[in-house]
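Support request, please re-run this one:
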Amino acid sequence: MKISILLILCAALSWPSVTMGADKDAFLWLEEVESEQALDWARAQNERSVAYLEAHPLFEPIHERNLEILTADDRIAYPSLRGGRIYNFWRDAEHVRGIWRVTSREDYRNDQPDWDTIIDVDALADAEDENWVWGGASCRYPDYDRCIIGLSIGGADAAVRREFDLASRSFVDDGFVLPESKSYLSWRDRDSVFFGPAFEDEQMTSSGYPRQVHIWERGTPRQDARLVFEAERDDVLVNASRYWDGDTPWDIIVRLPSFFTREYHVLRDGETIRVDVPDDANLAGILDGQLLVELKSDWTLGEATFAQGALLAADMESVLAGEPDFELLFQPNERQAVNGVSTTDNTVIVSILDNVTGQLLRFTRGPDGWTRQTLDVPDLGTISVVSTDDRSDAFYFNYTGFLTPSRLYEADAAADSRRQIRSEPARFDTEGMAVEQFFATSADGERIPYFVVKPAGFEADGANPTLLGAYGGFEVARTPFYSGTIGSAWLERGGVYVLANIRGGGEFGPRWHQAALKENRQRAFDDLIAVAEDLIERDITSPQHLGIQGGSNGGLLTGAVMVQRPDLFNAVVSQVPLLDMKRYHKLLAGASWMAEYGDPDDPEQWAYIRRYSPYQNVSAEADYPKAFFTTSTRDDRVHPGHARKMVARMVEQGHDVLYYENIEGGHGGAANLKQSAYISALIYAYLHDRLNPGSSD
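Re-run finished. Output below.
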């Protein structure tokens, strides 16, 4: 039966019939990103999957509502403070690609600010006949009069970089310009930039990022830029930036030998001085001559030992002289983590997680040293610093929760004052809904926290359609958040949403991340399995009604758990995923992640990677749920070949599987709001089809 299905699909989908005998990877041809054969295969898969999913009665109403939510005019226009003014990038139904705009701080407090549009990306794309996607703006300190604008084609990481004059609102004809690449430009002063080329092999690391730092003077050819630093070929990358501490500039070169190790070098008078801190420490900022350092492991310095996760400070000159005087600012406990460090004109603001909820701490330095204060912010939610001012102690922070729409606050760190100036309107009816935090016990005994968002009328009867999301990698913390699309497409329609804080993430600091590195990766999968089993044990749901969703590293997570425990799930959504862990390090930016997963070319490391790699472990004999894989042709970070090959192999084995490849969109999977709304609608139609059969309204 499987052979006859395979032959039919091979003919219909225009890809060759294959055998897996001597050929260890018969689907390598699907790694040829833009080959006609591979794209024809992707289009045929799209056509089959889209026809199925669009036919679901909930697809169209969810799609329409997604569009309303994602393009609504009453969303919060989040601020970016530059030189005391508010900048914002905005997309809506009229500006699908987006506009970059500016207003004053005073006007921003009004309900309807008088925005001044700087760049209209839709108009620019039309004028230049190019599929531009906004790639950000880096502006020249202290006047913020010139900016380096990034524009990518279709949403890729690679971008075109062009100098822009804010006074004339025009690109500078003879300015700093780079063609599409993963090269970078970073302002140094009015007439020079740090430049990292990524055009030729010798300029790039094995991960595809720049490995050289040049200083490029205005008015000189790019190829004449002066080389000041060069990293190794097998490094992840190197870059350089000018940091400003008030009026004091610090030129700092950052070399990444691996994803989680760094060397910091100060460039001074043409020479580089190594900043003597642990290789895995992060330089978190410089304020009033004080260097801020965040530790990822214990550090013994003289007679003092600073513990993992600590935030330290020392006089920068003492560090460069080899006689550092570090002192402890903050030491998180076992259930806390530093989640971000920001500086204003006179203060250090530290965002922390405490049992996966947010707090803000303020540190100021006076004649008697550092003082600490807990800032007055709303409790029991996620707090994130949005933007700080380098000319005052003003800053903006956001507060949100699963059932609480985002609220934006303007605050003064020195005065510890705040006021709410924006709030996102409710996008779904939360009446009768509730949030609880539970703990599951993983295979090795570790307690894994997870949040359950219950819809109105919830009963623990084992029949609730339940979507379980997680990430579990790269020290990324997943915290409570408000989503109008999840609320309207899933919760309002009777679904349960679960967020698992599994190891590999950063919810409890470096130790939580490092517990699932390399040979311990299975712990992240065990944690998600434990949460799934706990949900079933509590009768919140059952395997027939339980689905999992994850993207990128989370796509690897869902793929691996599907292969290991298909009996636990009836739906699997794997978005822009890593799946072929034998070749991940050879594809695009994959080599940069070997510090997370290991080196497949090392037999000892491949021995543990191969045990979970989804592509190598998927079996014709297993009974998998009907999974849904999505990717993007223009993703130049995680190669689309991962999802393509996994689906091709599963189809060959006779499994029923769905696939959607966005022909543009980059690693985010979508290049604009319309694409985001559409892909989200496909996913929720799939989830309702699998977990809530018979749903139609």
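The mean pLDDT is 94. The longest strand covers residues 248-258.
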